[in-house]
Amino acid sequence: MEILCISNGHGEDIIAARICIELEKLGFSAIALPLVGVGHAYVKANIPIVEQFTQAMPSGGFVRMDSRQLARDVKSGLVGLTRKQLGYAWNWSRDRRRGKRLILAVGDIVPLLFAWLPSKFGGCDFAFVATAKSEYYWRDRKSGLPHVKKPFGGSIFFPWERALMNSDRCKAIFVRDQLTAEILNRDFKLSAIYLGNSMMDGLEPQGLDFGIGENEWAVTILPGSRSPEAYENWMTLMLCAQVVSRTIPHNVHFLVAIAPDLDLEIIGQSIIQKGWLRIDETTFKVQNARLMLLQNGFGDCLHQCHLGLAMAGTATEQMVGLGKPVITIAGNGPQFTRKFAEEQADLLGCSINLIDKPAQVADVLNEILQDPDYFQEVSRNGEERMGKAGASANIAKYIAEKIIF
Fold first, then answer.
1. I need a labelling partner for 11 at 20 to 30 A (CA). Which of 19, 100, 317, 334 fits?
2. 3-class DSSP state for residue 383?
3. In sequence order, what are the residues at sequence separation of 6 or more whose Cβ sits closer than 8 angstroms to the Cβ of residue 343?
């Protein structure tokens, strides 16, 4: 049995690769068609990719946030690449010589369309993992959010998206939280299934010891993964960190989760310029604060912290899912813009504290420290909004037992 996994973004690739790993454990053969970038997540997971139809684009996949990024991608050959990718999916889906096969679309309407279109003309069945949308973007369990307009068609999934998902050839719709599954089933008669959130898989700590004392605070900083935006975000977050160290009356350990593609020395020099003393290549100190630059142990950073300072997408959601409160501040993009930050705050609810400038960190901290129930509320909210781990294995098992006969 062969499965073609189509995804459109680095975060989506990671989720898709995890599912592919679990499918291979069950005896399936998986091949990947990453629509954005070159599929590093698949390569890392040893999942074969259709290399001749992959290409890195200037936007890094964030065209939704900035039309100028889309223009740059088009100039770099996006239209021709998309046509070739669709052609491959079309031919693969209709190639009956491959025997029993399935397309697994992971992401938003783009991979969903890539799976749906050939299925209408003699292609194979497909399943959809909807990673990009949640009903929490515009409502909570009780009602709509007062500051958010009700989506066209009454759901975060637009009518045309629901039409694609309603196809007879769509054998499963996997969503990221229970509320979204309930609404799609109840209001639109779509058989959406909630089996956990794959975004929460793979975050198990390695047991790293950061030297954090019992009465000391740990604050994880997430500047994002994309250069040069992450460097600009880092400068803003460093100002936030200085406010934290002045506000919290304890020793504070800042755990800075640095993406592998970022240059540690660039970040290190910016820390020294702000007056921190360099202890070693990745450790810095000033007054009651210690700062560590970490390119490994991401799960440990999330598990061991009390609080997050973040200007990131998926990593912020994962931190919230582990029950941690997060302070976010909008940047200049292309990813972490004001609009993106506001939408993220709506999605993640009380776990997110969105501010306009670093000085406001002190006000947020004082409110948090004076509310004895806040951390417990954030823990409950994180699981509700982000779901539980284990979805990758659950989705693979569902495909094996309910879709493939």
1. 100
2. helix
3. 137
- Closest by CA position to 199, among listed 403, 402, 395: 395
pLDDT band per the 50, 70, 90 thresholds, residue 77: very low
54 confidence band (pLDDT: 50, 70, 90): low
pLDDT one-digit tens code per residue, 193-238: 999 999 999 999 999 999 999 999 999 999 998 889 999 999 999 9
Helices (H), 65-105: 67-75, 78-94
* Lowest-pLDDT range of 14-23, 55-64, 361-370: 55-64
3 state SS of 83: helix
Asked whether residue 78 carries a pLDDT value surpassing 80, the answer given is no
Reduced to 3 states (helix: H, G, I; strand: E, B; else coil), residue 132 is coil
Q: Which two tokens stand for residue 207?
A: 């047991």
Per-residue pLDDT at 405 exceeds 80: no
Domains of the chain: 2-202+389-403 (3.40.50.2000), 217-386 (3.40.50.2000)
> How is residue 94 written in tokens?
């209709």
Q: Write phi, then psi, for 44 (nearest 5 degrees).
A: -60, -35
Sorted by sequence, the CB contacts under 8 Å of residue 41 that are 6+ apart come out as: 10, 13, 14, 16, 17, 34
Residue 372: cis peptide before it, omega within 30 degrees of 0: no
